[in-house]
Every structure is written in structure tokens, then in C-alpha cells.
């Protein structure tokens, strides 16, 4: 597994609730705050209150072997009721990445949710793709290039665990009312 290949992880589950109800749950940026995982707080910025392209929010994280980080996330794709995607960039004062060849900022990662109707209610997915921006992950790999595959595998496993918890919380919220 190589960093330059921008590895991706995805988790999917079925929820016995209509897509509109699931959509409301997956667009709550505070969904993971009280769950196992890194996210400690999330707040919309600049008066935003939901996912529209260009909206931004700040995430405050506690990452094992890294410490506290603050990221500014930008919504980059929205299909209302179905899909939303955000890019994670370093927060102010943390060495935010520079532009890529198209002039866009390279993200630390890109995350998203998708909701599809099913016979039993909905299928919901959460996914994440590692970005190429300078980040704590990139620093760990640069410091230990012989461990690149292991470092990435561990990071993706952490993403998978957090996403599994997120989708279980979506199911709980939607099915238990």
C-alpha cells in the first residue's frame, strides 16, 4: 500500500428508515463527536448550517501518536438527499498545504457519505480517501519510509473503525427514533 496511490476505505450498512431520515443523520457534522474516534468537536463556519458546495466547518481532533489537530473542511460535492463529500485541510497555523497543479488545495483526506434507497429502507456508505497534502500521516511515513504500508494500513483501520461506529450511530438514531 502506497501513500502516493491515495488509498481509500469504505463502510456500508443497511438502515430500516427512509433515505430522507438517513440523510438528516449523515449531514449532522457532530454525529461522530461522542463516538469512538478522533473527532472531538465540529462546527460550521462562516454562517453555514449544512452541506452545500463551498461551505466550511472546523474539526478538532485528538489523534493517537500525533496529539491535537484542527482541520478546516470544505464541502466539495453535494447531491442533496444522496451524497456529500468534504475535503480536509490543515487548520490555520498548522502548515496548510499549497495548491496542486489545478490550483486547488491538496487535502489531507477526502470524506463523504452516500445514501441510497433500498427495499428495507436505505443503504448508507461512508468513505475516506487519503490525500497528498503534507500532514501528520505524511510526516510519519517520511520519518519511517520502510514502514509506509504498515502506517497506512493502521491509519485506514482507524478510519474504518470510526466509520463503522458512525454508521451504527446513524442506524440507532434512525431506527430507534
The percent range for strand residues is 35-45%
CATH homologous group name: START domain
What would you say the CATH architecture is? 2-Layer Sandwich
Instruction: Give a count of the beta strands, DSSP E runs of length 2 or more.
Output: 7
How many domains? The number is 1
Which fold name fills CATH's third level, the topology? Alpha-D-Glucose-1,6-Bisphosphate, Chain A, domain 4
Radius of gyration: 16 Å
Low-pLDDT segments, ≥5 res: 92-103
Structure overview:
The structure is a single chain. The chain is α+β, with helices and mostly antiparallel strands. It has a single domain, classed as 2-Layer Sandwich (Alpha-D-Glucose-1,6-Bisphosphate, Chain A, domain 4), CATH 3.30.530. A 7-stranded antiparallel beta sheet has the order 1-7-6-5-4-3-2, covered by helices on one side. Strand 6 and strand 7 form a beta hairpin. Helix 2 packs antiparallel against helix 3. It is globular and about 45 Å long.
Question: Can you summarize this structure?
Answer:
It is built from 3 helices and 7 strands; from the N terminus they run E-H-E-E-E-E-E-E-H-H. With 177 residues, the chain is an alpha+beta fold. A 7-stranded antiparallel sheet has the order 1-7-6-5-4-3-2, covered by helices on one side.
Task: Quickly list its features.
177 residues, alpha+beta, Alpha-D-Glucose-1,6-Bisphosphate, Chain A, domain 4, globular
SSE inventory with pairings:
Layout (H helix, E strand, L loop, with lengths): L7 E8 L3 H8 L12 E6 L11 E8 L3 E13 L3 E8 L18 E10 L2 E10 L5 H8 L4 H29 L1
Antiparallel strand pairs: 1-7, 2-3, 3-4, 4-5, 5-6, 6-7
Helix pairs in contact: 1-3, 2-3
Amino acid at each position: 500500500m502506497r501513500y502516493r496511490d491515495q488509498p481509500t476505505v469504505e463502510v456500508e450498512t443497511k438502515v430500516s428508515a427512509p433515505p430522507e431520515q438517513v440523510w438528516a443523520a449523515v449531514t449532522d457534522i457532530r454525529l461522530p463527536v461522542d463516538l469512538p474516534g478522533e473527532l472531538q468537536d465540529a462546527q460550521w463556519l462562516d454562517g453555514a448550517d449544512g452541506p452545500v458546495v463551498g461551505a466550511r466547518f472546523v474539526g478538532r481532533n485528538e489523534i493517537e501518536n500525533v496529539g491535537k489537530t484542527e482541520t478546516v473542511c470544505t464541502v466539495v460535492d453535494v447531491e442533496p438527499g444522496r451524497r456529500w463529500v468534504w475535503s480536509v485541510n490543515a487548520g490555520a497555523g498548522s502548515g496548510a498545504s499549497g495548491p496542486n497543479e489545478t490550483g486547488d488545495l491538496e487535502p489531507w483526506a477526502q470524506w463523504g457519505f452516500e445514501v441510497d434507497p433500498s427495499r428495507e429502507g436505505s443503504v448508507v456508505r461512508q468513505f475516506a480517501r487519503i490525500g497528498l497534502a503534507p500532514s501528520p500521516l505524511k510526516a510519519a511515513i517520511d520519518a519511517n519510509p520502510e514502514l509506509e504500508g504498515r502506517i497506512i494500513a493502521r491509519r485506514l483501520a482507524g478510519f474504518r473503525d470510526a466509520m463503522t461506529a458512525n454508521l451504527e450511530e446513524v442506524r440507532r438514531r434512525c431506527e430507534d427514533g
